[in-house]
């Protein structure tokens, strides 16, 4: 087991050490390109090169996570979407990229990667093959070498005869054993070194956080303003108008009740219909603001009730030991509602599965359907609305929807749960 | 007939009491919170209770929980639950013990005094009164199921009314047909759905709901 891990690390070390070549090339090209900026050419060659450097760094981030479980975050500032085109745009892009401190840290990393990083990766690779060399020497290869150029040093062992050549075997075994223990550690060391340059600095992380909070706050304010506008409109055109109509009918009834009782009765019936319809509209409105079951029972039963109302059968599995905070609960409910409705409407699903559970301070919701797939997050689509809504709570949404289905939408919101019986 | 009324809004509680008394019910208690309701149900032994789902102090589904608890203590205690919104989820919970004497209606139904009082009487007698909205939600959802698709439009109408808890006579008057015609429709429905025929009003509803619930 350990030997196999060592061997894997050895092969990976070999692979990573070759990437140093890319680092050297990119480093030279980028530095040349940047120094050519005063001449003008650099303005055009630098952005693609910086992008290539980023891609190169991102490959290392992926390898670090996959091979040594070292997580390296992205430090890059987002580029504005509305850049100008043409030469001015190019200059703007180049300036933006060069102003990003992450670009310079990437360049610094390239230097480290082609020296220290390379050495460590090579060492992670070399230990085991070097051990093998001991066997090869002992097998007889030592003789022609010694004949040709005298004493041959294998590590600390001077080989000049059969005895010393045979001694190479235990030394080789030692190296292989050392490699099987040390190679994974060295490989991890390589990635940790990369992380110290590629991970955002606390300052950059803070900057990222501020940017994200500004964005989500903006979204939250927008969403709630739009909601209020919708509620105002619904009340104005719906219940309010019906109550006015009702008041008018009743006024007329008052005038007619003696003169024309039949007509009065007719108007009374109309008033009652109006009041019933006003109630129905108010009920729907309330459901859209804060669903009654959510208030009464919490998220679990609210999504169960929701599932029962769907036209497509939904299998619900809820595992919650308490209730999340009310705003989170409400956001989660509407997210589920939107995703289920979306799936039923667009995916042509015949069955859906809803899974809600809470683990390690994270509320996880998965909606799966057997529809035709191909769902994606478009800027104007329902899913991006859900994403923005969840973003306010640092929640995220991921969609996996290959053409032909099935579609799986996963949402995660960090939150705690209150004690089960402390429901308000 | 002895009634307990639980409703937290004064105007509505007052209106309910007036209406019930106008139809010769004896309102033995009109309470406004969950604990008071539990006490009244346990001590006054009413023949029927009219209960709002949402009650203080928690303003969650306290009324529903009190009613369910009281029915566990006294199986078959007739309870008519009123709410601003109806949920299949709650309807299932109320019907789950299968002992009848259950009503679940939107508060709007109080507008039609005759129908509402009829529902209270039906529940008190051990039958059921389900809000048409619950039934139509169920039917909408199951309409694509095969056995239901075999019902004629008329039979579907009869089944909806039947599921609300109406008697054959009531269905007949509502649809302007004879009682015998309704009886024929119901036996057709039972046949098509593979349910054993039964005269018992309440068991009919349970059978229908149980069937709709399946799958």
Give a nutshell description of this structure:
The complex is a heterodimer of chains A (424) and B (215). Chain A is an alpha+beta fold. Chain A has helices at 2-35, 41-68, 86-99, 101-149, 162-198, 202-237, 239-256, 261-289, 292-297, 299-309, 326-346, 382-391, and strands at residues 152-154, 157-159, 314-319, 352-359, 362-369, 396-400, 407-414.
Number of strands of chain A: 7
- Strand proportion of chain A, as a percent range, falls in 5-15%
Strand order of the largest sheet of chain B: 2-1-3-4-5-6
C-alpha geometry of chain B: globular
Walk across the major sheet of chain A and give the strand order: 3-4-5-7-6
State mean pLDDT of chain B (0 to 100 scale).
83
User: How much helix is in the residues of chain B?
Assistant: 40-55%
Number of domains of chain A: 3
The share of residues in helices of chain A is 55-70%
Q: Give the overall pLDDT of chain A as a whole number.
A: 88
Q: Note the beta-strand portion of chain B.
A: 5-15%
SSE order of chain B, one letter for each helix or strand = EHEHEHEHEHEHHHHHH
Decide which structural class fits the backbone of chain A.
alpha+beta
| Main sheet overview of chain A | 5 strands, mixed
Number of domains of chain B: 2
Question: Which protein chains make the most extensive interface, counting residues with beta carbons within 8 Å of the other chain's beta carbons?
Answer: A-B, 23 and 19 residues
Shape of chain A: elongated
Distance between the termini of chain A: 53 Å
Tally the beta strands of chain B: 6
Low-confidence stretches of chain A: none
CATH level 3 topology of the largest domain in chain B: Rossmann fold
Keywords (chain B): DNA-binding, Phosphoprotein, Transcription, Transcription regulation
Protein name (chain B): DNA-binding response regulator
Domain Response regulatory (chain B): 2-122
GO molecular function (chain B): DNA binding
